[in-house]
Write a structure and sequence with these properties.
It contains 9 helices and 2 strands, in the order H-H-H-H-H-H-E-E-H-H-H. By secondary structure, it is mainly alpha-helical. Strand 1 and strand 2 form a beta hairpin. Helix 3 packs parallel to helix 5 (114-122).
Length: 321
């Protein structure tokens, strides 16, 4: 677009729909596409609901939110989108209740689509109404141009249907209906668009690259305490040599831990009485006169019976307490 003429709708289509596609280039609004855009009906519903939410929110932001703090503006975007989408959901549930079932909760989450906040902050609050309106329409078209073909393609390949009607496809791949299938289809669409831009419009290829900016943290030295303040330049070499010398010194320390006496196992008397890991029937009737408490339990059966009685009596005492 030349600087001598006004921003036109064709300029908006070229920029916001093609070169800076909100989904394939800016990677925004992916959640609903990969999760529920598995049929053509659902894709058309989500695209149709996105149009009024984006256009109204972006126009309102351009007219009334330029002087509002940013953290308040973002909340207002969400409130406006929620009000619009609530009316859309009410109308759909009243007249076409079967259509909204495929979209589920993602129809309501259209109000919180990241594309809305992105374009309102980058463009709507910084330009005039004409530019904001054209950009909102072109961006919504760019979103629809991605979600509708992807929904139709996934329905045909995964379910062998289109708009609910059966079509003859030799093989179907239901896995493409899963979210990872949506990511795969998106990846092929994004690669195709990037290749087309590089071939036909190489002067705009740099605009389609994902740029990651470095964020630097600046710390004021005045507010730092003395123990955290940076050392002077002349003291730095001496401190580095000292730290190097300390690092080279290695001190081996052997820790001696006294092993605790193993506690007696309360269930030791359940082991075979012959002490050799073998069970002998004669041990059942063997006498155990040398018990720790000095009592004669008789056989092993009598001993177990007495312990069960003691346990019952303890339970009764605790219950009385």
């Amino acid at each position: 677009m030349s600087s001598g003429r006004k921003y036109s709708f064709s300029d908006a289509l070229f920029s916001s729909t093609f070169i800076h596609n909100p989904v394939l280039i800016q990677a925004a609004g992916l959640c609903a596409i990969v999760a529920v855009a598995t049929t053509l009906k659902t894709a058309v519903l989500l695209a149709a609901a996105f149009f009024p939410v984006l256009i109204i929110t972006q126009v309102f932001a351009c007219l009334a939110l330029k002087k509002v703090p940013r953290w308040i503006r973002v909340a207002i975007y969400l409130l406006i989108g929620t009000a619009i989408i609530a009316g859309i959901i009410y109308a759909i549930d009243t007249f076409m209740p079967e259509i909204s079932l495929g979209a589920g909760i993602y129809l309501a989450l259209t109000a919180a689509n990241s594309i809305i906040a992105l374009h309102c902050e980058k463009l709507a609050v910084k330009t005039d109404l004409r530019h904001a309106f054209f950009d909102s329409v072109a961006t919504a078209l760019g979103y629809a141009a991605v979600i509708i073909p992807i929904g139709a393609l996934r329905e045909m390949i995964g379910s062998s249907t289109i708009w609910g009607a059966n079509i003859k496809i030799p093989m179907t791949y239901p896995a493409i209906l899963m979210p990872f299938g949506g990511f795969l289809v998106l990846a092929f669409f994004a690669a195709a668009l990037k290749a087309l831009i590089n071939k036909r419009f190489p002067e705009h290829s740099a605009e389609t690259e994902m740029k990651i900016k470095k964020t630097s943290v600046i710390v004021s030295k005045k507010n730092l305490p003395e123990d955290l303040a940076p050392a002077k330049a002349e003291e730095a070499p001496a401190e580095e040599e000292k730290e190097t010398a300390e690092a080279e010194e290695t001190v081996e320390v052997e820790e001696t831990v006294e092993a605790e006496d193993p506690k007696e196992d309360d269930l030791a008397h359940f082991e075979p009485l012959d002490g050799e890991g073998k069970f002998d029937l004669s041990d059942i009737f063997a006498k155990d006169d040398e018990d720790e408490d000095g009592k004669d339990y008789g056989s092993a059966f009598n001993r177990l019976f007495d312990e069960a009685k003691d346990f019952d009596s303890d339970e009764k005492k605790e219950g009385d307490k």
